[in-house]
Amino acid sequence: MFNPQLYNTPYHTTDLSKFKFLVTGGAGFIGSNIVEYLIKYNAGHVRVLDNLSNGYFENIKDFMGLPNFEFIVGDIRNLETCKKAIDGMDFVSHQAALGSVPRSIADPITSNEVNVGGFLNILTAVKDATHLKRMVYAASSSTYGDSATLPKVEGNEGNPLSPYAVTKLVNELYADVYSKVYGLNTIGLRYFNVFGPKQNPNNPYAAVIPIFCKAFIEGKQPTINGDGLTSRDFTFVENAVQANIRAMLIGFENAFGGLDGSELSNDAKINKSINLQINKLDKHEVFNMACGDQVTLNEMIEMLNSISGQQIKPIYGPERKGDVKHSKASIDKISNFLSYEPKFRFQKGLEIVFDWYKTQY
Length: 361
Ligand SMILES: NC(=O)c1ccc[n+]([C@@H]2O[C@H](COP(=O)([O-])OP(=O)(O)OC[C@H]3O[C@@H](n4cnc5c(N)ncnc54)[C@H](O)[C@@H]3O)[C@@H](O)[C@H]2O)c1
Known about the structure:
Helix content is about 40%, strand content about 15%. The chain is globular, with a radius of gyration of 20 Å. It is of the alpha/beta class. The strands form 4 sheets. The chain has a 7-stranded parallel β-sheet with strand order 3-2-1-4-5-6-11, with helices on both faces. It has a two-stranded parallel ribbon with strand order 7-10. It has a domain at about 15-195 and about 235-290 and about 330-345: Rossmann fold (3-Layer(aba) Sandwich). It is built from 11 helices and 13 strands. Bound molecules: nicotinamide-adenine-dinucleotide.
């Protein structure tokens, strides 16, 4: 049920059994990892809303039948479905969307309907929910668009380069306006290329790491779009889960208690209270969620050769439309506000995910 290499560090300090969580897109890659964490730490209730359009029942099937787990097959494009899913929840982690830049270029209308229309439904249902404490949602590094400045810092965005990036920017604008107009408490996490177990390589819009891992396991040459010097701040999924847990709970848990009921040391209390003073997170905030590192595709191929004990050379193809050449995040804001710290750097994450893909083929 649980991957033994993951979630051995708790990122919360309170008893999760008193809280109810909705994870939209919870059958997808990142959502199902958030669910795994919440179930592992005995959350009071974990509800998933997913229409399985890009997620997999396989990702959550182990949790079916648990008394604190519930799966609603439904579409965020339906407001009533969103309202029912949010009813009675304390926290929402909104992950449901159609990811992928190429998908949005092939079909911008559907990406917009799900990512903008669906988002607005969730936000509206959140506005009308009486019980809810906070919604955290999946934003995207694509919002930095054509800005060439590195590292990417919140507040210094360029223009979007794809329909997908437009949808993710619009999410932030709506969350901000709902906060100003209706007083909603929301946090957007701008993910930078997340990878890890449960990310599917067989999907037509699969991401680069699942595709490369599959190629290495099958002893085939992977194809790199471009010259291989494209770089990304690849982020292991446990870091994304940590960010979601911290973002949901900040301000709502006993900041000074340890999980085992013990008190923190005085130094730790002082550090935490300094952080908490800046943590007046009662409106809308966006944070980069990344490692603050930069890895090129060529470097990734070298690491995969070393992990798998092979010497495979990639095939180089044309660059993809809508992609930025380089990406690297500043993680100062999320570290300061949410005490986030990327526990898994790229190499470690790649080893874990490669092990996991080996069990899948
Ligand atoms: N993976 C990344 O590197 C990355 C980077 C930036 C942002 N994001 C964002 O993070 C979130 C999660 O991404 P992921 O990689 O886990 O993708 P994913 O496709 O694995 O998960 C998304 C889930 O949403 C579900 N979904 C899609 N449309 C839906 C609808 N209309 N109603 C209900 N459910 C629906 C899918 O079935 C899927 O299970 C998305 O919002 C994505 O845009 C991901």
